[in-house]
Structure to design on (284 residues):
């Protein structure tokens, strides 16, 4: 996902019940992967060790668990490349593995191989065909309000199975695209091909400002519609359930998080994408 990360679930704590704290803390930490490749863009991967449930979760401790010295190779079956690491100070944590050779194409399969110490982690994904956003609008309940929601419209292709994710990024406030709350969609729930959906802002790890589920006057909003595979849908739905259940996006309540990573936990996903910009009225 292009500059996506979201709340960097890569810092996810090893899930366990309170009764298992002492046992779980003694277990070997797991390697947590959040990787993506979008149509028309290069791969990005976030890598960390899972954080024990007994540890304090703050930006300093998060940084201590980031893995910066792994060898990460991606391949489309013909071309391979080893990802490099960059420091992006706008992100928490600030270290991102990135590609510059293998560019995402719809319909292609992409493999991921991570080599770190004595461990090998692997995963495979494909990029679904993109579905174009027709419109994205900022709408207020009352004209005098200074806040509102974004509504998007798109056409779900008939006779095709599609899974979607909506994400937003506010210019100057959020450095990455954040998945919308309840923004993971299965087209089996659509009553017709023409789809209209309200976007509720998602949760970002260590935000610069207090979280609100709506948008505000003065915001310049980037809205993205992603097509995704079933394993990505299942992961993000399970992640969202953890937020709802525990009210804390970096402390999963149980072990229900889905994963397509062999030898680790997390997600390696391919995405189709369509992006629009929404301008709101000036802030008074």
């Amino acid at each position: 996902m292009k500059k996506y990360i979201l709340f960097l679930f890569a810092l996810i704590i090893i899930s366990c019940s309170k009764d298992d704290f002492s046992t779980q803390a003694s277990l070997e930490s797991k390697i947590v992967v959040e990787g993506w490749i979008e149509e028309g863009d290069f791969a990005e991967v976030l890598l960390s060790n899972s954080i024990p449930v007994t540890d304090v979760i703050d930006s300093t401790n998060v940084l201590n668990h980031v893995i910066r010295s792994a060898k990460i190779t991606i391949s489309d079956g013909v071309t391979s490349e080893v990802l490099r690491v960059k420091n992006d100070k706008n992100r928490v944590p600030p270290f991102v593995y990135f590609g510059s050779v293998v560019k995402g194409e719809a319909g292609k399969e992409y493999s991921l191989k991570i080599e770190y110490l004595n461990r090998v982690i692997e995963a495979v994904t494909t990029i679904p065909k993109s579905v174009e956003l027709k419109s994205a609008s900022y709408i207020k309940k009352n004209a005098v309000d200074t806040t509102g929601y974004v509504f998007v419209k798109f056409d779900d292709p008939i006779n095709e199975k599609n899974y979607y994710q909506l994400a937003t990024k506010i210019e100057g406030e959020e450095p990455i695209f954040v998945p919308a709350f309840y923004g993971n969609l299965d087209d089996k729930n659509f009553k017709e091909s023409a789809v209209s959906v309200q976007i509720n802002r998602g949760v970002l790890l260590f935000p610069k400002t207090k979280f609100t589920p709506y948008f505000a006057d003065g915001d310049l909003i980037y809205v993205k519609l992603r097509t995704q595979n079933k394993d990505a849908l299942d992961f993000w739905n399970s992640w969202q359930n953890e937020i709802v259940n525990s009210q804390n996006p970096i402390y999963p309540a149980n072990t229900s998080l889905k994963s397509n990573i062999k030898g680790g936990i997390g997600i390696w996903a391919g995405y189709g994408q369509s992006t629009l910009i929404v301008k709101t009225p000036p802030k008074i």
Notes: The chain is about 10% helix and 40% strand. The chain has a mean pLDDT of 83. The first strand starts at residue 31 and ends at 38. Residues 230-246 form the longest helix (17 residues).
